[in-house]
Amino acid sequence: MTFKTHKLFPSLFILISLTSNSIAHNQTNSDNQFLCSNGKQNPRTAPPPFLWTPALVQTKDIQIQPATGLSGRLYLPKFGAIPFTDLPLIIYFHGGGAFCSGSTYSLPYHKFSLRLAARSMSIILSVQYRSAPAHSIRVGYDDSWTALKWVASHSNSGRGLAPGHDPWIEHHTNFNRVFLAGDGVGANIAHTMGIRVGLENLGGVNISGIILIHPLLWGEKVKLDNEWGERRKVIYGIKDSAREWVSHLWSFVCPSSSGLGDPSVNPALDPDLRRMGCKRVVVFVAGDDPVAKGNYGYVTALKRSGWKGVVEIVKSKGKKNGFYLDPKYDISTEAMDLMKKMVSFISRSRKTYNGTV
Question: Nearest Cα to 25, choosing from 14, 13, 33, 17?
Fold first, then answer.
């Protein structure tokens, strides 16, 4: 027995949200105890997928490509023991620590994914791609594309479960409502995957939208104001201008690149920007983020590229990059507003898919 989401009454959605908030908020364990010194999952202490899981969200860890270690964590909304069907799927790419210290399996991302799955009534695949210092971001791109192709292969397998496929994705996903999302470097990956979707045919999957949270993306043509101009400023302990800081950071993330001359971090230089493989993008900007002005430049570049879609900006005034993941602020009014805007963006895809917009 399965439930179609559109047949449920509104009070159930309220119950889901309250449950996910209260359970995730009442934990007091330190996030760091679950990670190794390099930010990766510690196999002896990492939180298992069922830890801090609301009663209305199932979770489990999966292997996508065992040979390379590509893995992920799945989140599936349910009613009691019965999971929902015909759900949107969010493929999420975590950020954190300039591509070298974030982890899908860390407690902040686990709690965030639980809330997002419950509130948006979506399946979430949170991808654990390979990262620095052992690998450059190009390897992260390759892993992420492999994860996308793996998801897409589920839509073409017919009634039976093919070897290597996951039943949650196979039986509960609406493949016309797939989203790419990420934060920081993960948002950069989500953007890059969006361009690649526009250039290559995934087959059987429609990308309904892309959600970029505090993305590590710049717009070379943006005019910097006095606050983040070329004068030097202390940013995360480094006396630099915002532009120079992003350039240095990207050179670390991708040593073979030319800093802001690389279209991967500065899409204003990318001739394929107009090929973005969806019709809707939302960019969340933290006002106190050194990359904020670059984010505005990215939005401007996307609008001027010839892309036929719509891009939205959501601003969090005076907030730092990733504030919604901080245990001190993860259920603050601003964090909940960010979550609400994400849920609204996702829910609007139902109207578009049904042909009512």
Answer: 17
